[in-house]
Design goal:
Helix content of chain A: 40-55%
CATH superfamily of the largest domain in chain A: DsrEFH-like
Number of strands of chain A: 5
Mean pLDDT of chain A: 92
Number of helices of chain A: 7
Largest interface: A-B, 43 and 45 residues
Oligomer: homotrimer
Strand order of the largest sheet of chain A: 4-3-2-1-5
CATH topology of the largest domain in chain A: Hypothetical Protein Ychn, Chain: A
Distance between the termini of chain A: 85 Å
Structural class of chain A: alpha/beta
Strand content of chain A: 5-15%
Order of helices and strands of chain A: HEHEHHHEHEHE
CATH class of the largest domain in chain A: Alpha Beta
Low-confidence stretches of chain A: none
Radius of gyration of chain A: 28 Å
Chain lengths: 197, 197, 197
């Protein structure tokens, strides 16, 4: 004959063991899945491709980049095609092929040579835009570039564009790294903000 | 001598107390971490910077914005630089400096004055594009602007651009708020969609 | 008089039943909320609107798209307005209205007719850019288009633009689907990357 109390006791122990297993499974699941989920949340990053070399668009890119960096975002600017002119500091012609020299002469040697997308018709567009910005105490492009560096915005120049256009690393801002499209995608995929300007 | 049954009972109580602690910890963790995670999920928002004042790009921005709003996204348009012309309703010259007046005369006084990025060579581009849209029963830009408002798309004009270009709030659409880059970033960071047009 | 042991036993059973309820609630909650959260995580997708028909911007779009696809992203390109020229393969004039025929003659009949946004002043820009790319062994646009298809990048042509510009599906690349803005938004909302080029 079975002792009722013992049966109760052993049934209780079984119940407890069952709950212990469920709890362990749940703890393990919460651990694993929350870690996986956190890895896939948008990161506190902002990544901007600057393709354009138009003064107005370059200004927009730096205003957004410095804004994002001031809000605590890990911010990166990827300079490609005409956008490379924004981080160019000098123009070299030596050791370049004919088409590379032509390209060098057709693109600005530094940020001061950039012209806006509109108002360029009598060559005075850049002067007028820069003067209007100065009148309203808005930072100049060069001040915005310096501010971006101070705020830790990462600069990367597109290797393929540099290669195609014949731009050498020595011609660019010393704080500018060189990288491929994978470098941009590494920053942009899963960032909270990514823009093509 | 120890009573075996009592020992069993007290061991069971200890086990139960241990599991109760683990369960409380897990409940607390799930509460805290899920709340944190939900705060970092992309929000049901779409944020578009409209930088361009080209009729074709402005149309693209409003088509995407009204599309996103119809799909239940909280949608915002941030008008900056040439894009301000899309929400301009009249042109004022009084009380403006020489360069502000020049800028006012060089930019369209309202959305009807916008021209496309291509086909502008004989001035007929805007007429032709608007006519082709009407022939195919596609909403005009003015209808899209009205639709965007009806769908609750939020309009913000870039304060800095207005200041630099000398555009006054009275010249803009009455439903357009005025805000800085932080206002755009507040909408765009963590939105499900952010575009620079 | 109450049997103390029985009381203990029944109290234990109540405790156990209480914990069982809490555990079931937590299991259910973790199930439901984790599923909801996972649905809202950014998906392994990249969605690009190609609005521009400038050779340089089209190249940038295909370089980013093939890069994202190689990194395992489900990648889609949505061709709209001038960007339709990138997937055009021939130009038809028959059965089109006057303005549709004018539009057809003013836009390139295929990707080989695209010109860059800069350097177009003496018509030699496209030749020069393509030659510089070939010299540096960078894939041509046509190779990038083929690579994109091989990597499974999805092509969608904007139905409204096709309609407005009078472009027929037969004029486009056979692998290009036709869809509206909702199709782009379906890809872009919640993607890890979305760009307007």
């Amino acid at each position: 004959m079975i002792d009722e109390r013992n049966t109760d006791m052993s049934a209780l122990k079984d119940l407890l063991a069952g709950m212990d297993r469920r709890l362990s499974i749940l703890e393990e699941r919460v651990d694993t899945e929350l870690t996986e989920i956190k890895d896939q949340l948008p990161a506190n990053r902002a990544a901007i491709v600057l393709f354009s070399g138009d003064l107005d668009r370059v200004l927009a890119a730096f205003i957004i980049a410095t804004g994002a960096a001031s809000m605590g975002m890990e911010t990166s600017l990827f300079f490609t095609f005409w956008g490379l002119s924004a981080v160019r500091e000098r123009r070299e012609l030596e050791g370049k092929s004919l088409s590379e020299r032509m390209m060098a002469l057709m693109t600005p040697g530094n940020s001061l040579g950039l012209t806006p997308s509109k108002m360029a018709f009598f060559g005075a567009g850049a002067v007028m835009l820069r003067q209007m910005m100065a009148e309203k105490d808005v930072s100049s492009l060069e001040e915005l570039i310096a501010l971006a560096k101070d705020l830790g915005v990462r600069f990367t120049a597109c290797e393929m564009s540099m290669d195609v256009m014949g731009i050498k690393a020595e011609e660019l801002n010393a704080d500018c790294a060189v990288g491929g499209v994978a470098s941009f995608l590494g920053d942009a995929l899963g960032a909270k903000l990514s823009l093509f300007i």
